[in-house]
Amino acid sequence: MNKRKIYIIFTMSLFSLISSFYIIFDLEKLEKSREKNRGRYLIESQILILENILNSYLYKTDILDMFVITNKGKVDGFDYIGEKLFENDGVIRAIQIAPDGIIKKSYPLKIDSQGKISLFKNPDRKEEAYYAKDSKELYLSGPYKLFQGGIGLIGRKPIFLDNENKNFWGFSIIVLNYENLLKKLQISKLNEEGYFYKILKYNPLKKKYEIFAKNSKEELKEPLNVEFYFKGQKWKFFLEPKLGWNKENHLNERLGIGIFISILVGLITYSFLYINEQRKNMKEISMRDYLTGLYNRRKFEKEIREKILEDNLFTIINCDLNDFKIINDTYGHKIGDIFLMKISKRLKDKLGNKGELFRIGGDEFTIIFRDNFEKKENKIFWVELKKYVEKELIIENININPSFSFGYGVYPIHGRTIEELEVHADKEMYKNKMKYKETKNP
């Protein structure tokens, strides 16, 4: 065999070997990327479940807040409200109110005169109480050992009797059973399906992250890390397969993930229906849209009335999603709901402190813009906002191109009542929608 043949054989063998290594490496990399995409979906789904289920309990403090404000600080009838809000599912330990930071009323646990606790004086709770009061927002603390025994979480919402949040009245409080809450969240399913997880919640008082839930004593080697905010507090969700991102038995793994995803979808659907039912029952005292978490029309009308009384210039902007019915009919209401949530988040994120976003109903949103929309810089900002909101969305491997039409009415230029402003805004929006249809179907 001459040298030329040896060279060719060696070269082809080496090329084949290198090519094989490259293909194997590329396949491994692709498989790892696919596994991580699945992991991100699992994290986002579990975060959504966590937020929805916690909200279904914590919003009861809003109801207690409104109960106290409506009764001008009097707490007569608390036992009736407490009984209505209490759910006998093992998660709620107690519903309480604490005028001036002193826990005086509790359901179902009764408090005698000697059992009253002053949150501002108790060494284990005073820092949390002051933090909640100063932040003027609900503060969720725990998990930690409760005075009543067991491990729990406590949500404390400061109550102010005036709109300026200056006249502090006390707290509305809900105490949750930690172990039963975890069962409700179904986090253990991640362990059963072959994942290590760790959920951290930031403690602003200690200025560090603390463990909310985990299933591994060892440090995770290469976890996915998703940071999110809930009730103004930072959380981190870590996830990693027990066998690593490149698993040997891909068939069994994918079957397991498919089963787990179907369970998650059922839980998400259940969570939405559950929260929707709760909000319908309490809609006369609720100002939030159950799906997006945005303020609803009742809150919108209240804000508009107040702004008209102030007689300061502002703009209402009505937004209507184009072809939303087609999305619902084509992909189903589940995709439609996720689409609405993502669009509302984009609108809210881009809007920032320039205005307040409301979901009026269905695919309709309204913005109270804190300036004259017709200013040049505001028109430029709106072009940027519309471009950002209309970026392509990918939901469960479905590509959707969002689009919306809008119209506006400036107070007091286009009207001095809600009706006049909305009529002007709707006319402008109708013109834009016609232009969209003409562009789409020339």
From TrEMBL:
Does the record bear Isomerase in its keywords? Answer: no
Q: Which SMART domains match?
A: CHASE (SM01079), GGDEF (SM00267)
> Which SUPFAM superfamilies does this UniProt record tie to the protein?
Nucleotide cyclase
User: Which InterPro entries does the record match to this protein?
Assistant: CHASE_dom, DGC-Regulatory_Protein, GGDEF_dom, Nucleotide_cyclase, Rev_trsase/Diguanyl_cyclase
Where's the GGDEF domain?
Answer: 312-442
Query: Is the Membrane keyword given for this protein?
Result: yes
Q: Which Pfam families match?
A: GGDEF
Q: Which GO terms describe its molecular function?
A: catalytic activity
Q: Which UniProt keywords apply?
A: Membrane, Transmembrane, Transmembrane helix
PROSITE patterns attached here? CHASE, GGDEF
Bilayer-spanning residue ranges:
6-25, 255-275
Official protein name in the record: Diguanylate cyclase (GGDEF) domain-containing protein
